[in-house]
């Protein structure tokens, strides 16, 4: 029998009318968050809101515990109209990556500015493009073992797709019991990258629960997936070959040679097919797979290039890349934030992140330099703290790692200390994960045919899960086109393209964005999100 507990919660809020949040779990209010020294500008907002409680950012964090699994979530009440706005669940991928990735780097309520000196606590500012502007959003660390979610029983860190979907559904039922005031709101499931598997499998569980009359009855309406995998034949090499050719990364000659040799069959590739693909591989080496426009940094020390260092040998045009209107530039080394190119498309158990790093096969991320290689070899199989440090070196996630491993922050957000929940890693090295759900196409077909809305979006410069594969699988569902390929606008500029299909399926690109779309294009992302959630044309 499930038992569940909540240790504590917080909110960051200007609560002008506390009584209206009475249904939220007790003890949820906090008055500060390390790194955030600002006073919430309450007057700024109080005039324009028109709902029972006036609340800028209302953030609640809890563990929900069942089956010895403590799942950590961070909930932000909508800054617009909490009682009308949908509830959105956000899931980062991996598998094994924390949804604090989305919170810190993509669409969370704060813009994080790197602390000075390096390694000190970051400074937090309000993010004008937070997805909490238009939705009540839950960031969940899932499956158990990821981010702040933990168990005292290590065998709970062994997971697969279907177990994860079942656990997350369980979490949602508990969550809506905790927050009955949100149970009538529309509910959407969203995520990125490997969450291309989490989202449809979870959606199917939720739908099964609804059909079985499980209470609380979740008012599920649909789902969004960004640069998500589909586990289908349309991705992997097949998507990569057309992407690289279309983007001018390989010549017509090489493209034609590959087409001739492989005949579209990349799953059982012949020797000549593999040899010709080798030419593409060679052409791509040195590129940043998460955004082909970004420079590739081969070792952590070269990170200073990213800071616009005047004496850097990087051209000025490159130094400007990755700048957005948020204080942090987009990350350059993003190991673990998505599955690397060649390692995907396999059923069964995934290698752990450190096993993958040992293969040294992740361009732009794992340095081929000898000292670094030695560090990997000598430090890999020690203890969790040690491998956490190792990952901190490899990745460009210092800000989140510093913030979430600071005990005062953990206390403020009511996460357990490191001694209990373990150190926070952007992508957990302690879980074992099996890819067990197969192709997602039957799921998408099923869900959309039953009237659930789907927005499938792609940063069009991501080479990790390129838009070519996503465009192909959405098209393969065979639905009638109801909104033919057209540009969509943000701030009077073309922000990308979309194609609308029957059954409320929309495929959308975000022009110039890499793998983690809102990190590259925060304003555009909030635009398409809010229009889509509101049921308006994008
Ligand atoms: C740990 O979990 C496994 C699998 O759920 C279970 O078989 C085992 O009894 C648990 N161990 C303890 C000490 O609870
Ligand atoms: C690949 O080859 C295996 C064994 O020869 C066969 O069973 C499978 O159907 C083939 N797959 C494709 C996509 O051709
Ligand atoms: C700027 O870049 C140069 C060349 O890479 C490096 O030697 C120098 O230390 C960097 N300066 C700063 C302040 O990072
Ligand atoms: C599709 O929906 C039907 C009816 O709800 C269900 O029985 C079936 O398992 C679903 N298939 C998938 C792949 O979700
Ligand atoms: C599309 O979504 C709208 C709003 O949820 C719904 O009313 C409509 O029935 C859906 N259309 C289809 C074909 O499922």
UniProtKB/TrEMBL annotation:
<comment type="similarity">
    <text>Belongs to the peptidase S10 family.</text>
</comment>
<dbReference type="GO" id="GO:0006508">
    <property type="term" value="P:proteolysis"/>
</dbReference>
<dbReference type="GO" id="GO:0016747">
    <property type="term" value="F:acyltransferase activity, transferring groups other than amino-acyl groups"/>
</dbReference>
<keyword id="KW-0645">Protease</keyword>
<comment type="function">
    <text>Probable carboxypeptidase.</text>
</comment>
<keyword id="KW-1015">Disulfide bond</keyword>
<feature type="signal peptide">
    <location>
        <begin position="1"/>
        <end position="23"/>
    </location>
</feature>
<keyword id="KW-0964">Secreted</keyword>
<feature type="transmembrane region" description="Helical">
    <location>
        <begin position="47"/>
        <end position="66"/>
    </location>
</feature>
<dbReference type="GO" id="GO:0004185">
    <property type="term" value="F:serine-type carboxypeptidase activity"/>
</dbReference>
<dbReference type="InterPro" id="IPR033124">
    <property type="entry name" value="Ser_caboxypep_his_AS"/>
</dbReference>
<dbReference type="GO" id="GO:0005576">
    <property type="term" value="C:extracellular region"/>
</dbReference>
<keyword id="KW-0865">Zymogen</keyword>
<keyword id="KW-1133">Transmembrane helix</keyword>
<keyword id="KW-0325">Glycoprotein</keyword>
<dbReference type="InterPro" id="IPR001563">
    <property type="entry name" value="Peptidase_S10"/>
</dbReference>
<dbReference type="Pfam" id="PF00450">
    <property type="entry name" value="Peptidase_S10"/>
</dbReference>
<keyword id="KW-0121">Carboxypeptidase</keyword>
<keyword id="KW-0378">Hydrolase</keyword>
<dbReference type="InterPro" id="IPR018202">
    <property type="entry name" value="Ser_caboxypep_ser_AS"/>
</dbReference>
<keyword id="KW-0472">Membrane</keyword>
<protein>
    <recommendedName>
        <fullName>Carboxypeptidase</fullName>
        <ecNumber>3.4.16.-</ecNumber>
    </recommendedName>
</protein>
<keyword id="KW-0812">Transmembrane</keyword>
<dbReference type="GO" id="GO:0019748">
    <property type="term" value="P:secondary metabolic process"/>
</dbReference>
<keyword id="KW-0732">Signal</keyword>
